[in-house]
Amino acid sequence: MVTQVRGRSSGVVATLVAVLLASGLIFVATKGLLYAVVAVVLAAYLAFVVAFGSRVTGIACMMAAFATAPAYRGLEQMIGGIPPCDAFVIIGVIHLLPTFVGNKLKLPTVYLSGLLIMSVMSLVSVIVTGDLLINAFYAVQWLFFIGVLPILVAWWRPELKAINLMLWSYLGGHLISTAYAFVEGPIHAGRYDGLTHHPNAFGLAGLTSIVIVLYFVPIYRGFFVRVVLLGFVATSLLSIVISGSRASIIVLVVIVLLVPLVERSAVTGFAWVGLGALGVLSIPYIIDIFGEESAIGRLAGSGTASASDAVRTEGLKVGFDRLWSSPIVGSGFNKVEEFHNVFLEAAIAVGFIGLIGYLMVLYKLARPLFSAHPLRRLSYMVWVYMGVGPTFPGLWDRTVWVPASLAALAMLAPYVRKKHDAPADLVVEPAREAVPRAVSPGRA
């Protein structure tokens, strides 16, 4: 009897809450078109949470974060306010936190030490350089996307299915951005930027999409999926070419040369060398089709390449002058994005000591690519970031760091779930840094 009364009381409370929420959303919707859109989004969000639960909602939010990451700043400029990518990450973490807060976590000492150095030097820089709010705002973004988010991902330890869904979302997001590029047309001197804020960011998103496909290739062996992946490679390569990003095309070549080392296969090596030779022979045709402002054309010195080099060189000169004015503790994060080199930006912001910590963090995230870890290919994205870093003004860039946060999983030792666990996917647990001998590189 008591149980029935409690059940009825809970139902009444739930009904009242639903009515109040609906009334509030209807009231908000009457205040204008923008408010109506917000009300619809909130209503859809609440309905999704009720229907699927907190965990699924959290994964869906992370998928949305990955989908909007390729064009996060362009979308921010379109809608104003916080980038959608950031909002989805925050909401996703809030929903997922109760599901992994009890997990044990042991990260490499070098990674944690580097992050500690970065944090301490960021705090010192923010305090001693003035402009407290501006510097703190940028410092928090930097530390969150290179430190906090990877740690949260490692703590969460998503199943393989969740990892793949998030990465597929990224590919889908960049595909939409590429389609928009052709609808919009070139924005300046024949270069395209899609939904991003700059052609170089568009090229970087295409490069990131290609290395995500490299992660997928050993996982999906079916003919149909392989064809789909090949289509993503083609569209992503096209986005790099029409973006005019020279850094992206150079780093892509380097990644192609790394593939045989990662896969430990002579056959794969010859195949990639053949593709590379075909690409070299295609250079004149690419320039002829896409013009001098394509990535290949600008790499050959055509179009606006010389002007861009002059601007970048002058910026580096100013950046080094600022660095030597305070090389130990740095001079803060304000306006560091003007210098188009993430390593110089880090040194300017937090000094050489902070730069050492930054390199330690990058090293631990990038190193697993050459291990036998089953998830080692996730580290490709970190190598992409380090490759474009010397020419890219993205110290806290989400285009790479949102998907690259998954590389933290490759710092943890692998294990396979027991048969009665569902789903029975390969995941990782915090344990020894060394990879067990039972893991076969050929099967990973």
UniProtKB/TrEMBL annotation:
| Statement: the UniProt record of this protein carries the keyword Disulfide bond | no
In the UniProt record, does the keyword Transmembrane occur? Answer: yes
Membrane spanning segments where? 12-29, 35-66, 78-97, 109-129, 136-156, 162-183, 204-223, 229-259, 266-287, 342-366, 378-394, 400-416
Keywords from UniProt, A to Z, are: Membrane, Transmembrane, Transmembrane helix
Q: What is this protein called?
A: O-antigen ligase domain-containing protein
Organism in which the protein naturally occurs = Nocardioides silvaticus
